[in-house]
Amino acid sequence: MDKLNFKKIINNDFKHIYQDMLEQFPKYELKSYENFEKLISSGKLDCYGVYDNDLEIGYFLLAKTGKSFWLDYIAIKKPYQSKGYGRKIMQHFDNCYLEVEKPDLNKPDTLRRIKFYEALGAKKLDIDYVYPNDQGGYPMDLYYFGKNIPENITEDIKYIFKILHSKDI
Predict the structure, then answer these.
(1) Average pLDDT over residues 81-97
(2) Among candidates 163, 108, 109, 118, which has minimal Cα distance to 144?
């Protein structure tokens, strides 16, 4: 695990990643496969496979928002979790937003994720944030990973809602 490689994924190769996403993310946090295809093919969202040598160990999806990034999803495939890969991937990021489930004592994974991001230096933003979904929305926390929290948070969120979360993708 000395050096990880990132490979941009195109629509034809996205199907296996979406299958993994269905297993790792709650349904209410996912867009439809068709919406992901449209976002990736239009260049609004980039998907990268993460490789340790030739072994695909995870993936992430992100969009550019001016001077920052929006880390839409990040996951390590189950057989490779808890081996330091997530930390190693996050070292490549700076100036990015993260949508994170609110802490829930009944869902220990939420607490684990928050602890992980905060240990890496992510800061919870003092903003009410609702992830839009087919059920109307799901309250989440918005974090920022980077040295300087941007002054234009509201503009970045509006932009992301327009390009990633719009019903007119």
Answers:
(1) 93
(2) 118
